[in-house]
């Protein structure tokens, strides 16, 4: 899923969307024909239910926590995954004994939050 688009979208995020789409659409032999969707507070499903083998969250959870959409991100991802599909998470990890900031302003998230 890409950054939200539209009249209020950040132009830098629109440029990142275009670069991402260009990179993964350029090599059909390697990537096939990827389908791109957007994700945000008002977005629909990121993929048809039960069709994804893998969903990746790459250093995004803290931003979604700050925007109040982390629960939606997890819900959308699990809805998209096939039975046995994998949700992969790469995120700066806050120590278990640390205090989890509800909006993860420092970018660190406790593992317990994502379990």
Report on this model:
There is one protein chain. This protein is an alpha/beta fold and 115 residues long. The chain is 36% helix and 18% strand. It has helices at residues 11-25, 28-31, 61-67, 70-80, 111-114; strands at 52-58, 81-90, 93-94, 109-110. The chain has a two-stranded parallel sheet with strand order 1-2. A two-stranded parallel sheet has the order 3-4. The two termini are 21 Å apart.
Quick tags:
two-stranded parallel sheet; alpha/beta; 115 residues; 36% helix
Report the sheet with the most strands, covering strand number, pairing sense and barrel closure. Answer: 2 strands, parallel
**Number of E-state strands:** 4
What shape does the CA trace take? Answer: globular
Distance between the termini: 21 Å
Instruction: Encode the helix/strand succession as letters.
Output: HHEHHEEEH
How big a fraction of the residues is strand?
15-25%
The chain-level mean pLDDT equals: 90
- Helix/strand/pairing class, anyone? alpha/beta
Instruction: Classify the helix fraction into a percent range.
Output: 25-40%
Count of runs of 4 or more consecutive helical residues:
5
How would you write the strand order of the largest sheet?
A: 1-2
């Amino acid at each position: 899923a890409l950054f939200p688009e539209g009249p209020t979208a950040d132009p830098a995020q629109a440029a990142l969307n275009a670069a991402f789409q260009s990179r993964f659409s350029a090599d059909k032999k390697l990537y096939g024909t990827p389908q791109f969707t957007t994700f945000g507070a008002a977005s629909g499903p990121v993929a048809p239910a039960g069709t994804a083998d893998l969903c990746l969250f790459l250093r995004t959870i803290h931003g979604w926590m700050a925007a109040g959409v982390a629960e939606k991100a997890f819900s959308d991802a699990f809805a998209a995954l096939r039975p046995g599909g994998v949700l992969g998470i790469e995120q700066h990890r806050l120590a278990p004994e640390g205090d989890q900031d509800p909006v993860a302003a420092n970018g660190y998230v406790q593992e317990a939050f994502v379990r």
